[in-house]
Every structure is written in structure tokens, then in C-alpha cells.
Amino acid sequence: MGGFEIRNATPADARFMGDMLVEAANWNVTRARPRVAILDDPNVSRYIAGWRRPGDFGSVAIDSHGIPIGACWGRLFPPNAPGYGFVAVGVPELTLGVNPQWRAQGIGRALLKAITRQARAAGHSRLSLSVERANFAHRLYVSEGYITVESGESSDTMVATLR
Ligand SMILES: CC(C)(COP(=O)(O)OP(=O)(O)OC[C@H]1O[C@@H](n2cnc3c(N)ncnc32)[C@H](O)[C@@H]1OP(=O)(O)O)[C@@H](O)C(=O)NCCC(=O)NCCS
């Protein structure tokens, strides 16, 4: 595999970001569901529906040919329809996914760092997310400064404070 670069996500990235949302939902391959079933599930599709809405921001990793290989983005949810990682009004929730053949090469971490820069530039002071504790992504988030603020049966809600 060659190198990669990271650029800001555009409205034209919606389809690819849908693919990455499916990767995130299917992180545990023993419980994987078909793309259409995931994107038909409003609890999941709300993370990408209507991309890019006002307030949305995202980063896309591309290979040396400009092909998208990973994405991370933030979206705001209202308190009456919170996402899984909702902590407060005005705190964006993150989604992160990398194409399977590109994993374990630093792309996920680079995307997390890029989205942090974007969030800071947009004036945000915190980012949140929900992750299952069994997903090694949990350790990635801890190593990037995310702290568990709420624990469910198998998932944690985590928050990063941006300095
Ligand atoms: C989670 C995910 C985004 C991480 O992206 P990635 O590009 O593979 O991650 P990185 O290469 O940046 O690695 C981050 C850390 O995780 C570790 N890691 C990578 N792959 C691993 C694996 N299969 N098992 C355990 N740890 C792993 C790396 O060692 C790295 O730590 P290090 O920098 O100390 O070495 C990616 O694996 C993915 O898309 N998974 C499915 C979707 C998902 O789970 N999204 C998150 C939902 S909350």
C-alpha cells in the first residue's frame, strides 16, 4: 500500500461516508448486517442522512490516486433526538471508519487528529462518540485523549476536550 493524504470532506463524499458508516456499524464481523439494512435503520442512517448539513464537518483520507479510503466526521444532534454518543447540545458526535484493506496503517489515528483540528477551527470545545468496549477503537480513542463519561452494558460514551 502507498501513502495517504487527508482532505476536508465535501458533499460529494456522502456515498463513501455511507460506506464508512456501514464499516463502523459492522465493526464486529460476526454480527455484520448488509449495507442496505444498516442504511435503512434510522438509528444509524441519521449519522449521514442529508450530508453535508450546516454544522457537519469531516475529513476524508485518500490514497495516492485520490481514491477515498477512510473518513471521520462530526454531526450535531438535538436533545430530543440524540445520537448514541450524545452528551450535550453543541457537542458534535463522531463517526470513524477506514476501508478494511487500509487498516492498521495509521489512517484512523490521522483522521481523528484531523477532525480534532477541524472541530477546533469551527469553535468546538468538545467532541463525543459512542464505542463498544470490545472494539479496539476504544483504545485508540483513549490514546487520543478521550475519556469515558457514561458506560452502558457494552458501550461507552467518550468525550475529548479540545485544548
Ligand atoms: C477503528 C478504525 C477506524 C481504526 O483505523 P485504523 O486505520 O485501522 O487505525 P490505526 O492504524 O490508526 O491504528 C490505531 C491504533 O489501533 C491499533 N490497531 C490497529 N489495528 C488493530 C487491530 N486489528 N487490533 C488491535 N489494535 C489495532 C494500532 O496498533 C494503533 O495503535 P498504535 O498507533 O499504538 O500502534 C478501523 O479499524 C475501522 O474502520 N474499524 C471498523 C469501524 C469502526 O470500528 N469504527 C469505530 C466505531 S466507534
From TrEMBL:
One of its GO terms (molecular function) is acyltransferase activity, transferring groups other than amino-acyl groups. The keyword Cell division does not apply. It comes from the Bacteria. PROSITE patterns: GNAT. InterPro entries: Acyl_CoA_acyltransferase (IPR016181), Bact_Acetyltransf (IPR050832), GNAT_dom (IPR000182). The keyword Transferase applies. This is GNAT family N-acetyltransferase. It comes from Leifsonia tongyongensis.
